[in-house]
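hey so i finally got around to running both of the ones u sent me last week. sorry it took forever, my laptop kept dying halfway thru and i had to restart like 3 times lol. anyway pasting them below in the order u listed, first the sequence line then the C-alpha cell line for each. didnt double check formatting much so if smth looks off just lmk and ill redo it

first one:
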Amino acid sequence: MAPLSPWLLSLTALSLVTATEFATKSGLRPWVDPDTPEDRQAYVSSRGDTWELVMSDEFNEPKRSFRPGDDHMWTSLDKPDGVNAALEYYSHNMTSTQCDGDTCYFYIKAMEDETVLRVWNDYQDVPGYKTVYFYYRAAMVQSWNKFCFQGGMMEVRAQLPGAVSPESGNPDVKSGKTTRATTKLYYPTWPGIWMMGNLGRAIFSASTNRMWPFSYDECNDAVFKSSNQRISACDKNPGSGLNPNQGRGAPEIDILEGGGHEVSSSIQVGPGMPGDFRPFYPTDDAAGGCIYEYNCKTKGANGPDVPTKYYMSKRGHKSWYQGMRYSANNFCQPNAKYKQDYETVAASVKAGITENSCDVTTCAGSKDANADISPIDGTSDYWGINSNGTCFPLMNAYTGAILCSPGNTDELCGTPEVAANDKMKPFAYQMDAISSNWPVHVGAYMEYHSYQLEWVTGSDGYVRWMLEGHPLFEIPASAVENPPQDSGKTNPKKIMIEEPMYIIFNVALSSTWGAKPPNPEEPCRGDGSDADVNKLCDAFPMYLKIDYIRLYQDTSPGSKMTTTCDPPTHPTRQWIKDHIDEYQDAQNLAVDVRGKGFCRTSDDCTVGNATLSRISTGSCVKNRCECNGGSWTGPRCTTTLGSVQATDTDDAFKSMFEGSYGPPWSGALIVAGLCLVFSILSVYMAQKREAAQDAEFKKHQNMQPKSAMSIGSASDVGIKGPKDNYSTNFV
C-alpha cells in the first residue's frame, strides 16, 4: 500500500496516537456524572497520594431503566439465580431509581413472589430439566463489558436491606443505631456490592467455568494442572486477541456481601492452597459448623497455626495467608469484654499460641494468629488490636470451595454422584476466599453509610476496605503472591488481582447462608403460626439503596490504573465476541449502547480537540448524550468503534479500515478532514477573487454535502456496519 502523503498524515496523527478515545469539549470525563459535587472531585489515598474522580453515578434522575440497551453503564438481568441455593429470581422491574425528598438513589427491591421454572441441571443423576421453586424476586445489575476498571478507590454510599421499622418487632432497633445487629431473623437477605473480572459474567456459568476466580499467571503442571484454567500461561497461542503465555481469569472482589449480624469483605482467587496449607478439618466434631463459632474440639480446627507448635510439628511450615490486616468498626457501641491491649497480644503471638482457639489475650481481635499487628498508617493504633472493644472483623472460617465438573473422579471431588458430561471439559480445583466478617451495627440498615475500597495492583499493591474512611480490613499483595511453602514449593503463587473488573449490585436470598429467610424451603410465612415470622414477612419488600457510586484513580503519567474493559495488558473484547453465546441468552442480550451519559450541554457529548473542533460527534438531549451517525460511541460519543493500534505509518493506514467491530470511523474522519482542507483552500482563494468569482464560489459551496464539516459517523459517508453489531459491548 502506498504511503499516505504528509498532509493527510497530519489530519490522522492525533487519532493514531491517542487510539479511540478523545476528550470532551467541556472537559468532563467520559464516565463522570456532572452532578458529582465540586468538592468530591479528588481523593487522598491511604498512602497519601491524590487520585482524581474518573467515574461516578449520583443516581439523581428518577425512574431509570437498566434493561439491556437502556443505560450507558448498568444492565439489569431477567434470570434465575442458579448459585448458592438461591431462592430469588432476578427481574428488570425490581430495580430503578427514585427520589425521597432531596435524596435520590438507586434501589433493588426484594419481595415475596413465587416463581416455578424448569431449568437445566448438569449436576443431577441424569443431566436434564428440573423443576425449581423461587419464593422471592429481586434484582442483579451489572456494568459488565460497559464499565470496568483496574485499580483505584471505589466509594458506595448505601443503606442495607433489613426489617427495621417499628412494626417489624426487631428488638435490635429499640437499643439505637450503634447497637450490634444480633437478631438474625430480621436481616434475611444477602445484599452484594462487588466486582468480577470481565472475562466472566456473573450467573452465566458457561462464561465462568474454569475462569472464576483465577488470578494466576504461571505454567507449572507440577504445582497446578494447567487444563483447569481455561486461559493458561502455558498457552502460546490462546487466540481471540489474548496475549500469549498469560494466565487469565475472572477473580472477585467483594466490597460487601451478606447481611445479618455480619458483613463479609473478601477477595476470591484461584487456584486455592492445597490441603496441607489450610486449617485442619474438624474430624472429632459432630458438626463441621463449629468452625464458625471457633469452638471445635478437633485440634487445629479453629484457625490456621492455632496451636502454633501443633501445626508446626505436623507440617513444618506456616498455613494459610500471612500478614492480613484487620481494624475496628467503631460505629458500634464498645463492649469491655472485647477490649485488647497491644503488649499482651504481641507477647502471646511471639511466644506462640498454646490453646486450641484464640481469645482476646492471645491473638489479634480477628482470631487470626498470623495477622499483622503493626501500627496503622503510622498512627498509635495497631492493626489487629481491638483497643476500643467495638465491633471487630473476624477471619472468615469459610476459606473457599472445591469446583468440579459433573462426574469428575479427581481425588478433590470425592465419589461422583452423577455421570461425566461429555459436553463439558473436565475440571477439578480449589478456590480460595480470603475474607473477613465484620460485625455490623443496626444503623447500617437504617441510614446510609459510605463503604470504600482501595485497590492497587502489582507486587506492592493491596486491597483495603473502609467504612466512612476508617480501615476495616486490608490484604497486602505479599499475602497473595508469597504464600507459605513446603520443601517441594507446592503452594501455587497467585498474583495480586489485576484483571479489568466490572461492578455488580444485587440482593439475593438463600437457604444455606447465615442470613436467610424463615422457612427457606417454602414461602416466607410457612404455616403462618409464628407471630414473629409473620411480622418479619410483613416487612417485605426490603430495599438495598445506593445514594451514589464514585471511583478515584491515579491519573499521573505512568499510572497503571485504567477505566476500560479491554486494556492492552488484559484484553477481553475479542474473546467475548468469539464466545458471545456464553455471555448472553435470549432474555439477556449483549446490546450495543451508544451515548446516554448524563450531560448538561452538548459540549459534554462531543470531542473537544482543536483538530476536530468542527466535528460534532454528539449532542445533549434531555440531559443524556445522543451520538451522531454510527461510528461514535461511548457514554459521551467521544469514542470510536474502530480499533487503532498501529505501530507504523502503513499499519496505521490499514488499521483505519480493518479490525473494527463497527463501521470504520477513520474513513469518515479522513473525508471530514479532506472537506475541511478543501474548504480552507476555497476560502483563501475566495479572498483573492473578484466579486463575481466570490459569488460563484458561494454557489458552489451550497452544493457541497450537508454534513461535510460535521461528519459524525461512517454511515454519513455511506459505510455500513455488520448485520450483527455488538461493537460497543467490546470497546
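and the second one:
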Amino acid sequence: MSDYVLSFKPTTRGFGVHDPSSVIFEDGEVVYGIEEERLSRRKHAANQFPKRSIRACLDDCGIELADVDEILLPYRPELLSKLLSSHVQNVVTNPSFFRRSAGEESSGSLLGNVATVTDTVDKYLGARSDELVELVEQRLENEFTGPVPPISTLSHHRCHAAGAYYPATFEEGLVLTADGRGEYDSTVVWRAKNGELTRERTYEHPNSLGLLYGAATEFLGYRAFNGEGKIMGLAPYGKHNERIDRKLRSVVDGGVDYDVTEVTTGEIEDGVEKLEDMFGRSRKKEAGEYTDWEQDFAFTIQQFLEETVLDIVRAYLRKFSTSNVGLAGGVALNCKMNKRVMELDAVDDIYIQPVAHDGGLALGAGMLHQKKPLDMPTVYHGPSYSNSRIEETLEKNKLEYEQSDDIEREVAELLADGKLIGWFQGRLEMGPRALGNRSILADPRTEASRDRVNRYVKHREEWRPFAPSMLEEAADEYLENAEPSPFMIKTFDVSQEHKDDIEAVLHPADDTTRPQTVNENQNPRYYRLISEFESITGVPVVLNTSFNDHGEPIVTTPTEAIKDFYGMGLDALALGEWLLRKP
C-alpha cells in the first residue's frame, strides 16, 4: 500500500500570503505538483487557500484527503512571534503604517491608534502554532471529506534550503537561502553535510535583500514580489553612476555583515518613500520607457545585490572548506546574480532550486521530511491532457483544426518561416519558467522575432529580452563556460561566433542569454522539435517564452491555451497532435 505525503503552503493567517502550491509524494517520490495560480487564474494567488491544487493532487492519485498519511506545511507559525517588537514599533511610530493598517487617516499618535496597536499585538501574540494549524484543519474539513491527517509544520527557510540541497549532486556544501521574509528570517547561511542542514548564520527581518530589491522595484514602477525580474532585465541597460551608488551606500551597507534596514524597516511602501527622500525623486508612476538615471539606478541595485551575495558566498565557502553551493528563496530567481556566483573561482558545483520562490516551498517541505537525495531532472509535475480530450475541447468550441502526422516537423517548418507558435504539450511545468510544455515559440535568428513577440503576443515593453531553448549538446558551441541548464535559471555569455545566429534571445545590452538546455530524456517531443528546426535552419535553438498574456499565469488547460491563442498575435497553435492556424 502506498504512502502518501501531501505538502502545501496554506496562505492563511500566519502562513504567508503569496504563491501557494501543493505537491503530493507517493512513497517518497514527487508524483504531482501545481501552483494555485495555475488553477485560480489569479497571478501569485495572494491570500488564496490552495483548495484547487490540493484537489488536483488528490485526484491525480485517485485518493481522498483521508487516504493521505501526513500533511506538511512549510511554515512554523510560532516563529512569527519574533516579529512582534518590530511590528508594534511600526504601529507606534510610523503614521503611514497607521493609515495602511487601519485603512483611514491617522493623527500619528499612539493614543489615537489604540485599536491598531491592539490588533497588531493580538495578531502576533495569537500566532501560536496549534491555533493556526487548527485554522488549516478547519479549512480542510470544510473543503474535503473524511478526517484530516496529522499535520506537521516545518520552518520556511529550512524548506527552501532542502529544495537546494537534496536534489543537488553534492553531499557537502554551502546552501544560501534569501527572500523577502520567511517567519523572522530573510537570509540564512546553511552548512549542508551528511544529509543534514545546519543553520550557520541568520540575517533577521527586516534586514532583507529581497525587501530592498522589492522597494527598488516599486520605486521604478513595477509591483514588489512580481516585477523584480523586470528590474533585473533593465539593469544591464544602465551603468555605474557614482552619485547613485554613493547615496545608496550612505544608508545601506553591503558585504558579509550587510545592513539594509534603513530602507527595509516597515512596509515596502515605507522603503519606497525612503528612496524618494534619498534621491529627491518621485517614484515612477507606471512602468514603460526608462531614463538613463532610472536605468543607472536599476544597475546600482542589481550590483549591490550581486556583490553582497558574492561576499557571503566567498566567506562561507572558505569557512566550510567546500566548493559546492546551493541557492534557493525568491532572490535565487535572479539569474544575473546566479551567473556571478557560478563564475566564482571558488565554486566547482552549483545547484539552484528551479522553483526557488515560495511556489517551491511544498517541494522543499517534502524533501526535508524524508531527508534523502531526490533526483529532480524536470519540473513537469502538473496536469497533462490526452489527444482525445483536446479534440473534445476543439469540437465543443466549433474550431477548425487539423491532425498532424508529424507535429514537431510541421511546427519547426512554421518557425523557420517566421511564424509565432503556441506550443501546448505534456505535463504542466512548476515554477515561473515555461520549459517546452506551455510555451510560445519563435525563430531566434532575428531581432524582428523578439520585437514581434513583445509587441503582438506578450503585449509588454519592447526593451525586455527573451530566452532560448537549445539542444544540450549544442551548449558548448553557443555558450561560454557552458554547463547543463535545464531550468532557465542561469545566465551565460554567448560565444562570439554565434551571436548573430540567435539575436532574438540575446539581452540587447550585454549579449548574455538565459538558456534552457534540452536533452531527449527530459522532453523527447520538445527535443525533436528543436532538432527539426536545426535540420532546416542549421540553428539548434528556438526562442521560448511562457504561454500567457501579460499579467496572467501560464496556461494550464487546452481551453486557456485556445483563449490566449485568439487573444494574441500568434499564427498557429499546437495542442498535442492537433494544429490550429489563423488565416
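quick thing i noticed on the 2nd:
Confidence is low (pLDDT under 50) at residues 101-112.
anyway thats it, ttyl
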